Automatic annotation (TrEMBL):
Protein name in the entry: Tumor necrosis factor
GO term, biological process aspect, one: immune response
GO CC list: extracellular space; membrane
Keywords associated with the record: Cytokine, Disulfide bond, Membrane, Signal-anchor, Transmembrane, Transmembrane helix
Subcellular location, record wording: Membrane
Family, as annotated: Belongs to the tumor necrosis factor family.
Topological relation to the membrane, as annotated: Single-pass type II membrane protein
Amino acid sequence: MERGDGLLGMVPPPGKLSGGWAGKLCGVVMLVALCGTSAMLFHCHGLTQSHGNETNEHQQNLKQISTNMKAAIHLHGEFNPKVYNKSVQWRDGDGHSFFQGGLKLANNEIIIPQNGLYFVYSQVSFRVLCSSAAGHTNQPLSHTIMRWSDSYSDEKPLLSAVSTMCQSDANGLGRRYNAVYLGAIFSLESEDRLWTDTNQPKNVDGGDGKTFFGVFAL
């Protein structure tokens, strides 16, 4: 064998490949394949780990947002005699109504999730047909926010207002519109229940933005 033959001179002629040479070639091929597979697995592991880190970071961000979210609820009201024939029905799935942070609507009452300061508010709009002949003059309309608390095991008015709807005039007949608004800050306790009491729910105007009830934490 001459020096110029290089590796070619080391390879046995075709058909005369010994068992030792065959084993060496197979070992080289397997080594190359294993190196390629290891590189692919390392790359995939890196992508999976990176995706996992992004998912964990996203979950932490959502948890932080949820923690910082202020408790709030805003309800739309209407008179629905099929559900409540003596009070306004409050709904949390209509128009601009929503709830978050633990405040919720249950049995037409707002449930307070934890102790703290809250702004409580409500407005009821009335639409009344006034007629002096029917004795509808100076018709009072009242709206009250009630509270039940375990601290005194009783219900008490939280806010209340009265408005006179019909006034005598030369016309003597006509449809009148009026609104009663209530709102103030209160220190409330966990599991307190808030609801409303309206003396003439059948005259409540349930149009968008006219009758509502809400609470938000400060």
